[in-house]
Design the sequence.
DNA sequence: CTGTTAGCGCTTTCAG
DNA sequence: CTGAAAGCGCTAACAG
């Protein structure tokens, strides 16, 4: 273990440049009230010594370390990975760093991480993914608590409360339209696949139900199936389900992995896609173009959602107003699994 | 915009609990020299008021905010997303938060982000992915500079220098073996697909070359192809390449997406996989099981790499020694694209 | 334009 | 076991 070299402070710089620390601070913060000459001298010293201002001290002094907290269930999830990537890059362009927490689905962990973000005095927190919205109001209190201090941005979640700002994709319409699409392709028994109950899942489900209703198909609850785990498990779960005697000619899945799991099930059983079974996924992830036939999916405009979120946030942080709820419409991307 | 509620400080707590701030601080840091009674009283006040200690101030006082910086090219990349997910969860279990920067491939941005991490006085930085190692030594100076202050952990990169610790998968052997596998399946013209030149890519390439040599196949440089972009672009790039008259009966790709791009090319042209063309990818990502046939791939033990990295780091931060270079062997995962 | 100085909220000796 | 007080490195009035 080598000896840590001590890092320079503003005092070192001020001494070397022959000015006060205030002047150095002004230079660091691009204050206009520094003469060109002084500024240059200070900058030269800074460059030469490789000085980086201590962010803690800056944060303490100014009340902000220009940091945003992002919570997501797991960045290993493709959709969330994309979201975090867009968010982080956007935030950094605006001069903010991001602290990331992958909280998983455990409620206690979510709450703990959220509280910890407060301790770190982040300037705002972004909750990415609808997993953060609990079905009962009191369980959402942990979000509202934080919003009393700093803005909370929800990505694909909605809570109506002060200082909470929501950007979501129109999952309801997306699934209404997708179910309609399947109906028009001739499907009459449409399997609805989901993972966890979540705010977003419920909207999707409602869209699905409403479409069935409008097509005068009675809702068959046995066609609403919850799946867990990775591809292989999804597949085998469906095989079991099928062998129990359930029949279906269409699949509407809450994410692309579920949809591909269904395709793998079909291949194993010998059901033809799209002739005997049409499939629509969601998120329009890279997975959808890996399979063959390629998977029809729903593009929920992740990037746009993220851009909106960051720009709202920047506005808020500058003391301006922002819209509390923005719903973005989605695009249906037809591919091979619905071709007939 | 609502009024930000002012957050509690250690003074509020000390006043309410009728003790000095030093005592509160001791309670916060689990110091043994506080009487049980006092501790309980203080804890009660803390809980009741929802107080969270200010991390900046803590960092300033103690010299550490228990934060690790992670740089990666892009978390939207499946492999890196997995790595970041494993790293973050592991770090948090050890009481560390992580600041994430998706730097992209631009050298200047990498350097800037690395310097910024110093300013934030992170306790260490982890460079995830071999994109951070430049081919010429002076360009790696920016990494060495930081390592003078804090440990730098490389994931899939190697620089021999003090206070830099490297965990890598054995890409050389992985690709040597994979090329051998293709040879044994009868391939004689093996296309090597890569994206950027990187430390890892070079090892893979060496493995490929060495295997060819041992099989007494002369290296055909026209079979070493650099691809860019997403699946569609990879596919069309290969179509062009093929139409230019290049022939090959095997593909060895530096990541799964490239491999699947090759599969899509083959499907479009009408080349049968695996009969006429065998394909091996790398990373054993979820993509490899989405395609049909499923893609043979190389499992490079991402999780193990991350666990090792974090545990080395924790050891270092406690002042203990750690191994400077650890190479993990990989697993070849045979699937449908190499079945003959 | 520049310097002085009082915090920011916590940690950490040093006394008691 | 507990408290007082000196920093930690920077920001932001306030004076000049």
Sequence:
């Amino acid at each position: 273990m080598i000896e840590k070299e001590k890092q320079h402070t503003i005092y070192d710089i001020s001494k070397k440049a022959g000015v006060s620390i205030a002047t150095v601070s002004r230079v660091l913060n691009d204050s206009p009230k520094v003469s060109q000459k002084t500024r240059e001298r200070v900058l030269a010293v800074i460059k030469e010594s490789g000085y980086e201002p201590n962010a803690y001290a800056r944060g303490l002094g100014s009340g902000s370390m220009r940091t945003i907290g992002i919570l997501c269930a797991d960045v290993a999830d493709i959709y969330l990975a994309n979201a975090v990537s867009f968010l982080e890059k956007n935030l950094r362009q605006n001069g903010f760093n991001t602290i990331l927490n992958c909280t998983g689905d455990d409620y206690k962990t979510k709450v703990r991480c959220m509280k910890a973000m407060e301790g770190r005095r982040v300037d705002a927190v972004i909750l990415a993914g609808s997993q953060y919205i609990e079905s009962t109001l009191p369980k959402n209190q942990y979000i509202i608590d934080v919003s009393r201090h700093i803005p909370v941005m929800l990505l694909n979640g909605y809570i109506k409360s002060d200082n909470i700002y929501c950007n979501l994709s129109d999952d309801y319409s997306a699934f209404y339209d997708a179910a309609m699409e399947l109906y028009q392709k001739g499907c009459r028994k449409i399997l609805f696949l989901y993972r966890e109950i979540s705010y977003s899942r419920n909207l999707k489900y409602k869209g699905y139900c409403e479409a069935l209703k409008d097509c005068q198909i009675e809702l068959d609850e046995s066609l609403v199936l919850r799946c867990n785990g990775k591809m292989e498990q999804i597949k085998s779960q469906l095989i079991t389900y099928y062998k129990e005697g359930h029949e279906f000619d269409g699949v509407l899945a809450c994410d692309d992995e579920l949809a591909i799991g269904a395709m793998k099930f079909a291949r194993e059983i010998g059901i033809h896609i799209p002739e005997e079974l049409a499939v629509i996924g969601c998120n329009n992830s890279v997975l959808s173009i890996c399979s063959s036939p390629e998977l029809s999916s729903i593009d929920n405009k992740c990037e746009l959602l993220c851009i909106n979120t960051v720009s709202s946030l920047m506005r808020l942080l500058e003391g301006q107003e922002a819209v509390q709820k923005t719903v973005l419409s989605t695009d249906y991307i037809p591919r091979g699994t619905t071709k007939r």
